[in-house]
From TrEMBL:
The keyword Signal applies. The keyword Ribonucleoprotein does not apply. Residues 130-462 form the Peptidase A1 domain. PANTHER family: ASPARTYL PROTEASE AED1 (PTHR13683:SF750), ASPARTYL PROTEASES (PTHR13683). Residues 1-26 form the signal peptide. Belongs to the peptidase A1 family. GO terms for molecular function: aspartic-type endopeptidase activity. One of its GO terms (biological process) is proteolysis. This is (wild Malaysian banana) hypothetical protein. Keywords: Aspartyl protease, Disulfide bond, Hydrolase, Protease, Signal. InterPro entries: Aspartic_peptidase_A1 (IPR001461), Aspartic_peptidase_AS (IPR001969), CND41-like (IPR033873), PEPTIDASE_A1 (IPR033121), Peptidase_aspartic_dom_sf (IPR021109), TAXi_C (IPR032799), TAXi_N (IPR032861).
């Protein structure tokens, strides 16, 4: 009985995957055989087409990779893989710093009001973030913004750029040309919710300094936010940044999808019920989606409890309980994972594990890969292979086992970071100590439907999202 759907599913997989097939053992997938050709991203962007499951309670935006052929930005200053991974480590360092020292009460409010840079303990943005296009103001002005589950305050660069604005692709938003723009007053509770705020002629001033010394400072404001021409949020609160500098690429700003009060998710809770889903592009030459509200995607979802971390109200915590390689569960005591806990993050590229778990993963993976020529390490990635000249590669499946019985099965595109065919690296890295926060990064999430449901306190994972 059970084997019939399994055979059908196996055939469907074979047909669907074009060049990718799986080795099935004892009911589970243990290894994946892939043609090398299928691993290479194309030079052209092929965009994801949303299915016809139109649900009027939900809104879908196209997710674009800042680095590939689908990037909305002109790519004169394309970062190298090493630079991307080095920046990823500064994001992780700042995430760790944020958790170990609770955000300080801002001591520089006076300095802020006096228009110098505030010191709000923000995180480093890194370079692994994805962008979406939304509209601000009346009439609507399109702005390409990073979306980030690791921060709360939404902001865009605004005219007049008093001291400095960095270069962005879209024209910089001018609030004086928007009939719906309003400043938020210092006495508003929304101003207090910011954590770091100041006051300038009774107008609320916000400031976020990210861990890599990127910063944005300006007026805290509200205006109409257009997700689509039909889905419009009046009086959305965001920072109108008149002094901004840092590693934002050419993006106009950021949309904060964290859990704390100022975030998009909290502000639109009535409207979308605290539910959003994304599918990050499976390759740099494809696109994904970011959806708010609505039903869950139709794919086969596995749910794990969404937990809260006392030290950071922004982050989405979950429980990682074990890891399997090639169908074999690694012998890592579950307490190794529970010491510091684990978050899921849209903006961290590479999954970070406790060193004890990472070394077990690495040795199991290396044992399965002994037939391949090794290649030099790449930044934080220490297990790399030279696949050039080969037609096919076989990798063991890696699975992440989560609390509540959910498992994320990773295929080769979520196991290897392929800088080039001569340098394909295991896309996991160790934290400095088992006491550092674990992070599920975005390489491991690509192509999956990832559902965040703040009202039901669950995070769901489904295959085949985009
Ligand atoms: C939209 O949401 C409402 C209430 O949450 C529900 O009753 C309705 O069926 C939903 N509509 C669609 C098209 O899903
Ligand atoms: C917002 O406040 C700033 C500073 O007080 C002021 O220059 C600007 O004109 C205000 N904008 C509106 C629409 O009130």
């Amino acid at each position: 009985m059970a084997s019939v759907p399994c055979v059908i599913c196996y055939l469907a997989l074979l047909i669907a995957c074009l060049g990718i097939c799986w080795q099935v053992h004892g009911g589970g997938i243990t290894h994946q055989h892939v043609t090398i050709r299928s691993l290479l991203p194309s030079d052209a962007c092929s965009s994801y087409k949303d299915g016809d499951g139109v649900n009027h309670n939900e809104t879908s935006l196209t997710v674009l990779d800042r680095h590939g052929p689908c990037s909305p930005f002109d790519l004169h200053h394309q970062l190298s893989h090493k630079q991307i991974l080095d920046h990823d480590q500064s994001r992780v360092d700042s995430l760790h710093g944020r958790v170990s020292t609770a955000p300080k009460q801002d001591q520089q409010l006076d300095a802020l009001a006096a228009s110098s840079i505030p010191a709000h303990s923000g995180i480093s943005l890194g370079t692994g973030n994805y962008v979406v296009i939304v509209g601000f103001g009346t009439p609507k002005r399109d702005q390409t913004v990073i979306f980030d589950t690791g921060s709360d305050v939404t902001w865009i660069q605004c005219q007049p750029c008093v001291v400095t604005c960095y270069q962005q692709q879209d024209p910089i938003f001018d609030p004086s040309h928007s009939s719906t723009y309003l400043n938020i007053s210092c006495s508003s509770a929304y101003c207090t919710d910011l954590g770091a705020s100041g006051c300038s002629s009774s107008t609320c001033v916000y400031g976020v300094q990210y861990g890599d010394n990127s910063y944005t400072v300006g007026f805290y404001a509200e205006d109409t936010l257009w997700l689509t021409p039909y889905d419009v949020i009046p009086n959305f609160r965001f920072g109108c940044g008149e002094r901004n500098d840092g590693l934002f690429g050419k993006a106009a700003g950021l949309i904060g999808l964290g859990r704390d009060k100022p975030s998009f998710v909290s502000q639109t809770y009535q409207r979308y019920g605290g539910v959003f889903t994304y599918c990050l592009p499976p390759t740099s030459s494809s696109t994904g989606y970011l959806r708010f509200g609505g039903g869950y995607p139709s794919s086969d979802l596995r749910f794990t409890p969404m937990l809260s971390g006392a030290s950071s109200p922004t982050f989405y915590y979950l429980t990682l309980t074990a890891i399997s390689v090639g169908g074999q569960q690694l012998l890592v005591p579950p307490t190794v994972f529970s010491v510091a806990g684990t978050i899921i993050d849209s903006g961290t590229v590479i999954t970070r594990l406790p060193p004890t778990a990472y070394s077990a993963l690495r040795s199991a993976f290396r044992q399965e890969m002994t037939t391949y020529k090794s290649a030099p390490a790449l930044s934080i990635l220490d297990t790399c292979y030279d696949l050039s000249g080969l037609d096919k590669v076989t990798v063991p499946e890696v699975a992440l086992h989560l609390g509540g019985g959910a498992t994320i099965h990773l295929d080769i595109t979520r196991i290897l970071y392929i800088a080039s065919l001569s340098q394909a690296c295991l896309a996991f890295a160790a934290n400095r100590a088992d006491t550092d926060l674990g992070i599920i990064g975005n390489v491991q999430q690509r192509g999956l439907d990832v559902v965040y449901d703040v009202s039901k306190h669950v995070i769901g994972f489904g295959p085949g999202g985009c």
